[in-house]
Amino acid sequence: MRPRVYVQEGGRVTDICTMNASTGPKRILVTGGAGFIGSHTAVALVDAGYEPVIVDDLRNSRSEVLDGLERILGRRVAYHCVDCGDEQGMAAIFETPVHGVIHFAADKAVGESVAEPEQYFSNNIGSTARLAKMIREAGVPHLVFSSSCTVYGEVQSLPVDESAPIQPAASPYGFTKQACESLLTYSHAAAEGSLGVALLRYFNPIGAHPSAEIGELPLGTPANLVPFLTQSVAGIRPALTVFGEDYPTPDGTCIRDYLHVCDLAEAHVAALQWLEKAPGALDVFNLGTGTGSTVKEVIAAFEAATGRSVPHQFGERRSGDVTAIYADASKAQRMLGWRTQRSLQTCLADAWRWQEKLGN
């Protein structure tokens, strides 16, 4: 990590590492930047010499995340409590030149999307449409979009690469990611070369910053495997329910590609830097390890990494879950110069360290 030097400008402290000789700080709007992936990406942006500006209405996160970022970075990052789809609220933010936008803000639970599809369509698709319009009107040159491997639906062959056909979505959440990718492809065309777009299809981010200052902070009952697992071990939740033990996989449980959130955060910086070198480009990238792990394997890896037993039981399959999916991420390695660096056990050890800091 490079040493940081700060300068004072009109009462505002600025990281000199983000200064550009001709345009000043490279401001990157991070929508949903107080969330799990967004907050880790804010750290990665500062480490790479950018100035993150967090936009988050805190509907799915907490203000304490900003305190954790301050402890990691040694300073407060710019923050606006605004819905990124609120054109009036965003107007003032776009008054200062924006070098790029990384768009995370969205509802993201597969199960909740099955129960509340209208909410997901309105928030995920509607807000992205309004934000894309504002980005084009403001003349922002770079956009990195937080997509998902759920766009592939129930895949026909593994590992899945970016040329795989887009199957019908297994959940409303997956459909919203498909729709937003299409929307941003049209926005890119309408910008006529003035906007570059990187569509990043995540597999399954887990873990936490090694400092344990930030990590996954689900509000209410966790919808994802690892935070429920760590809360079960901590005694906050009942035994973990593994949804389905009769899938056509080696041990009957679903297979996913789990990558460390810090690896994922660094991929966003790599995508932004790729867009800087290829202005006006449009492309899609898988972000994963290239290796699938079953739920039972994750439980075993957690126990090996932490020495703690995971209380768990088996239940019925969950609506919206695909059987197995893991990435062919060779395109990201080839074009972005990015690949994962951290092991599954490191992911789980960091997640447990974060849970221990949170306490009960």
Describe this structure in words.
- The chain is an alpha/beta fold and 360 residues long.
- 38% of the residues lie in helices and 18% in strands.
- The protein has helices spanning 36-47, 64-73, 87-95, 110-115, 117-138, 172-190, 225-233, 261-277, 295-306, 330-336, 344-358, and strands at residues 6-9, 12-15, 27-31, 51-55, 78-80, 100-103, 142-148, 196-202, 204-206, 240-243, 255-256, 258-260, 282-287, 293-294, 312-315.
- Helix 1 (36-47) packs parallel to helix 2 (64-73) and helix 9 crosses helix 11.
- The longest helix has 22 residues, at 117-138.
- It is globular, with a radius of gyration of 20 Å.
- The model is unreliable at 1-22 (pLDDT under 50).
Would you spell out the secondary-structure blueprint of this structure?
Blueprint: E1 6-9, E2 12-15, E3 27-31, H1 36-47, E4 51-55, H2 64-73, E5 78-80, H3 87-95, E6 100-103, H4 110-115, H5 117-138, E7 142-148, H6 172-190, E8 196-202, E9 204-206, H7 225-233, E10 240-243, E11 255-256, E12 258-260, H8 261-277, E13 282-287, E14 293-294, H9 295-306, E15 312-315, H10 330-336, H11 344-358
Parallel strand pairs: 3-4, 3-6, 4-5, 6-7, 7-8, 8-13, 9-12, 10-15
Antiparallel strand pairs: 1-2, 11-14
